[in-house]
Amino acid sequence: MSTPQDTKLEPVWHAEGVHVGDVLSALGDIRRKFARVGAGDEEQPHSRNRVMTLVAVATTEADEKRALRACRAITVHHPSLVIVVREQPDVVKGRMDASIATDTHQSSAGLEVQCEIVTLHVGSAAGEHLAPLVDPLLLSGVPTYLWWLGTPPFGNRGFTEALKIGDALVVDSAHFDQPYHSFLGLADVAASSHEHLGIADFQWQRLSPWREMIAQFFEPKDRRLFMQGISEVGVDYVGDGRGNRIGAALLIGWFSSALGWKLERAVGGSGGVGAAHFMVAGNRLLEVAFRPVPKADLSQGAISAVRIGGASGGRTFQLSILRDPERPHMLGAEGAAMELRELHPSGEDHAGAEVAERKAAQHRETLLKIRDMLHHTNTGDLPGDSTLKNPTVLARDRRHPDNAQILLTMIDIGGAETLRHVQHVDAEDEAALLLELLSTGAHDAVYDRSLAAAAELMRAL
Amino acid sequence: MTDPVPPNPLAEGLHDYRVADPSLMVIFGATGDLSARKLLPAVYNLAKQRLLPAGFAVVGAAIDDLNDDSFRKHATEVITKFSRTQPVDGRVLQSFLESVFYVRVDFGKVDDFKALHRKLDDLDHARHVSGNRVFYCATPPPTYETIAEQLKATGMNAGPGFQRIVVEKPFGSDLKSARELNRILQRVFHEDSVFRIDHYLGKETVQNILAFRFANLIFEPVWNSNLIDSVQITAAEEIGVEMRGAYYDKAGTLRDIVQNHALQLLALVAMEPPVAFDANAVRDEKVKVLRALRPILDDEVAKATVRGQYTHGWVLGEQVTGYRQEHAVAPGSLTETFAALRVFVDNWRWAGVPFYIRAGKRLPKRVTEIRILFKRTPHLMFGRKAAEDLDPNAITLRIQPEEGISLRFGAKVPSAGMRLRDVTMDFEYMTSFLIETPEAYERLLLDCMIGDPTLFTRADEVEAAWALIDPIEAAWRDDRPPLATYAAGTWGPAAADKLLHADGREWHRA
Questions:
Q1: Are residues A112 and A127 in the same domain?
Q2: Which of A150, A185, B282, B405 is geometrically suited to a Cys-Cys bond with B427, CB 3.0 to 4.6 A?
Q3: What ranges in A306-397 are assigned the alpha helix state H?
Q4: Which of A232, A156, A222, A220 is nearest to A189 (CA)?
Q5: What's A163's DSSP letter?
C-alpha cells in the first residue's frame, strides 16, 4: 500500500450552518465543472468513474484525521466518494459545517478521475441521524461502506437505521470501548441486521495470517485426517481481562465452527486464564486453553501463540505458531503506554481492569492533546497545518498499529525433526487493512459464523 | 480433475488462499535469464504473499559451478533487480533463501541427476514434502528431451506424491516437432503432469474473458454470427527483437506470437461455454475451436495472410534500426516481424464471421486487445444524417497494458436536434478492484504446484494450432505472399490494411 499523500487537501467548497441539500448542490457543481475540464464542446465529457462510497464516522478530531488519511490512500488508486462525518458540539443542531475537497489522479488509461472527499461536522451525535444525513449524497450503483471509527452505538435506533444505507459496516473490534460488551453488541448486529449487510472487522483481518498458517498445515491430503485427531489446542494472548480475549475467542470461534465443534462449557479463571470444552467428532470432549501472557512488545489483546496437537493414523503431530519469537523488547510508544497502565492499577476483577484501562487511555489522550498544543505553540501553525517532526505516537487506544511481525511455524510430525517455517506479516497499515477488507466485498460468511461462535464462547467464559 | 479429498474446511473464506501441498521445485537452467527475470522473483513474491507452504523448497539445477551459498547470492541479486514488488523485503527474502538450494547438473550426465535425486530425497525427509516434485525446464526446448529422459533414468518421474514437468513455449516449431515433443514428454510423464506454460494465459485479463462471457447473461445471446460482424485480435509490441535476434530470426511472428498467444485468445473468445471451470472442460472447448479453424491452404495463403518486416523508423519518439540491422539477425533475413491473418471458425456459432489477427514488433505501441464488432442496426429510424458519426456497437477486451473492457454504443448529442454519436462505457480493471494484480508467472507457478492445469496448454491444443500454422509457413517459405516491409513505428505494411479493405472493413485504432 502506498503511503497516503501528506499534502493537505484544500477544500474547493466550504460552508457553515448549511443543510445537506446545499452540499448536494455544491457537489453537483463540482462534478459538472470537472466533467468539462479538458473537454471541448464537441468532446465527450469525462465519464463518472467511481467504485464506491465510503462513509467514515469519527468522534474525535484525531479519528477524523485517521479516516481522511486512510481514505485518501485508498482513493489514489480507487476513485471513490468519501464522506467523513464528525460530531462537533458547537455546530447548530440540525445544521452542519461542510467542506468538499477533490483529489484528481490520472488513471492507467490516461483518463483523469476525481475523488471527492466530503467532510461534515454535525451538531449532534453522528450516529443519531446518519442515514438522512448521508443518504442523499450516496452514489447509486456502487457499494456503500460504513466505516465506524471507535465504538458504534450498538442498540441506538439511529445507528440501526444507518446500517440500512450501507452494504457493509466496517469496525475494529480491537478498538472498542468496553470491549466485552461492545463485541457482544457487534455479534447481535450481525445476527439481526438485514441480510445484505456485511460486517468487516479489522481484528478479523489481523487474524488472517494465523488462519492461513493453520489452514496450510492441514492442507496436504495426508494431513487432512489430523483434523479428527486433535487433542489439544491452546491460545496465548497478551493482557488479562476478558476484553483482551476477543481476538483469541474469534480465532477459536473460527477454528471450532469450521471443524463443526460444539461448545459444551467454558470456565474463566482469574487473570484471564480460561478453558473451553468442545464436543468434537467421535463424541470426544476437547479442551481449548486460553492463557494470558505478558509481552511488552505486543499490543493488548494480540495473539502471541497458537498450539494444536494430536495424533491420527499412528502419527503424532504438533503445530506451534509463535509471533515475534525472537523480537527484542521494544521501547517507545507501547513502552509509554505500558507505563501509563502502571499508573492506573487495575482492580481485582475484570471490570476493574477495564476501568483502569480506560483511565490509562484518557491519560494518553490528554498527553496527546498537550503534545499537539505544545507543538502548535512552538511552531505557530494552526492545528492540523503541520505535524511534529518524528512525532512520538502515543497509543491512544487499547491497540496500536503493529510493527512488522514474524510468524514462526514449527511442525512436528511423528519422530521427524522439527520443521521451522518463518513467514512475515507486513507492518500494520490502517489503509492497507481497510483496503483488504473492502476488496473482499465485506460479506464474509466465515466471519459471521466465527463471530457468532466467538460471542457464544465469550458469554460462556 | 476429480479430487476425492473434500475441501479443507479451514481454507473457506480465506481471501486468495490457494496453497499447494509442500513440494520441491527443481529449476533446470536456474542460472539462466528466465529463471532470473521471472521464476525466482515469482517464487519470492509467492513467499511474500504467504502462499508457499511450510516445507516448500527451490532447488536450482544448472551447469554452473555454484553451491547453495553462491546460488542464494545469485538469487538475491536477481530478485532484488526483477521482483515486481519493490523494494524487496529483506526479511522475507532472508527466510525464502533458507529454502533455496543448488545442485550442479550437466544435463548429459546421469550421475549428476543421481546426485540431484539424493539431494531431493534428503530434502524430502527433512521438509515433510511427501515426494512432491515440480521440474521446471527453464532451458532451451532442445534440452527438454534430455532432461525428461534423465529424470526417467534416475526414477525421479515416479514415486510417492506428485511429479510434474513444466516446459516453456515454443512447443515445437511445427506440427511434426510438436508431436515429437509431446510423445517424448508423455513417455516420461502422464499428460496431466505436463504443464506447458503460455504466460499469456496467466494474465488476469485473459482469464477475465471467461468471466466476462460466462458469468454474465447479457453477452452470450449476442455472441454469435447473428449479431457479430467480425472480430479483431491485435497483439502489438513497440520493442524490436532486442537480444533474441538469433531465436527470432528462426521463429518469426507467426510461430512466436500467432501460433500460441493469438490463437489462445481466439479460442477463449470463440469457445462454447464449458460445463465447469476445470482443466479438461475448458481445454476441451478451446481445442474444439482450434480444430474448427478453416485451414488456409495454397492459393488462399496469399489472399488471407500478410507478412511484413520492419525497416528503420521512429518508435515512441526514438529512432530505431530496421530488423535486418538488429543484433544476431541475418542481413538478408526474410523472417516476418509482422503477421496478419483472416481466419474463420467453421462451426454453427461463427459461420461467416471473419477473425482478423495481427501481431508484430516495432508497431507504434504495446497493446493486446480483442475487438468484437457488431453488425449495424437493420434500420436506423433517425435518418442517415443524424447517424453519420455513428459506428456499429463494439466491445473491446483490453488485455494489456490498460486492462479493461469498453462498450461502444450510440447516444444522442445534447442539442435541440437529433444527432447521434459514439460514446464508450469503460471498465478499468486496476481501479475497479481494490486488489493488486498478480504477475502471470506467480499465478501459473502456483497453479502448477497445486496441480491445476486449466491455464496451461494441452498437447492436442498445441497440435491443433500447428495444424493451422503449418500450411501458412510452407507458403511463406515459397514467398507467397511476398514479404512486405513497414517502417518501424507504423501499424504494419499497407497490405495489412488491404486485407481488411477487401472485405469492406478496416483495422480499429488500438
A1: yes
A2: B405
A3: 333-343, 350-379
A4: A156
A5: G
pLDDT tens digits along A332-344: 444 445 555 555 5
Q: Find all residues with CB under 8 Å of B152, minimum gap 6, and list them.
A: B187, B188
What residues in B contact A422, CB-CB < 8 Å? 95, 98
Which of these is catalytic: B15, B74, B128, B261?
B261
Residue A247, min C-alpha distance to chain B (Å):
17
A49 and A116 fall within a common domain = yes
CATH number at residue A245: 3.30.360.10
- Specify the pairing of strand B228-236 against strand B367-374: antiparallel
Band (pLDDT 50/70/90 cuts) for residue A66 is very high
Sorted by sequence, the CB contacts under 8 Å of residue B200 that are 6+ apart come out as B206, B260, B261, B264, B265, B399, B440
Instruction: Find the domain containing A246 and state its range.
Output: 206-327+403-428+445-460
Mutation for A interface: B8, B89, B446, most A CBs within 10 A: B8
Provide the shortest C-alpha distance from residue A334 to chain B (in Å).
23
Greater model confidence, A45 or B50: B50
Q: Which of A143, A166, A189 is the last residue before a domain boundary?
A: A166
A residues 336-395 closer than 8 Å to B (CB): none
pTM value?
A: 0.78
Cell numbers placing B364? 507504434
Whats the size of chain A, residue-wise?
461
Pull the grid cell for residue B18: 490457494
Same domain membership, residue A338 and residue A239: no
Question: Do A353 and A424 reside in the same domain of the chain?
Answer: no
The chain B residues in contact with chain A (CB within 8 A) are 5-6, 8-15, 17, 19-22, 47-48, 50, 53-55, 89, 91-92, 95, 98, 125-128, 130, 401-402, 404, 423-426, 428, 430-435
